[in-house]
Amino acid sequence: MDRETQIRRLVWWNQLWIGLLTIGVILGGGYYFLTTSVYPTLYELKAGWSDEGLRFTMLGNGPYVVTHLVDWKTKSWTELSKPIVVLDSYGAKIPMKEVKKLAWRDMMNEPCEPPKQLTEVEALYYRSLVTERREKR
Length: 137
What we know:
A hairpin with a 4-residue loop joins strand 3 (about 65-70) and strand 4.
């Protein structure tokens, strides 16, 4: 084998390995971006108004526990009398009459009016841990 053939073969192998490494870095970066940025926002709990009242929805399954509601436009908030548990993608809802009964407070902790329907209301929630099921004997 002459020297020119060896150099061509070496260049080909180098290009192959650099190409594979580049593809690996692109796939790894894409996976990292999806798992840290896109995936968590897709599966967040979202609050929105419906004809019946305030509805909580998500793409995945819970469990989520909603404890407070916040209206960022007026900087008001309320604590739910009973926390709401959202178990699956069907979600949960609070009827409009219940939303109006809640004691809303502004950022100075003074009583204020409840938000009007169609304003952006967000839920303060946490994702609770679930115990593992025991095996049946």
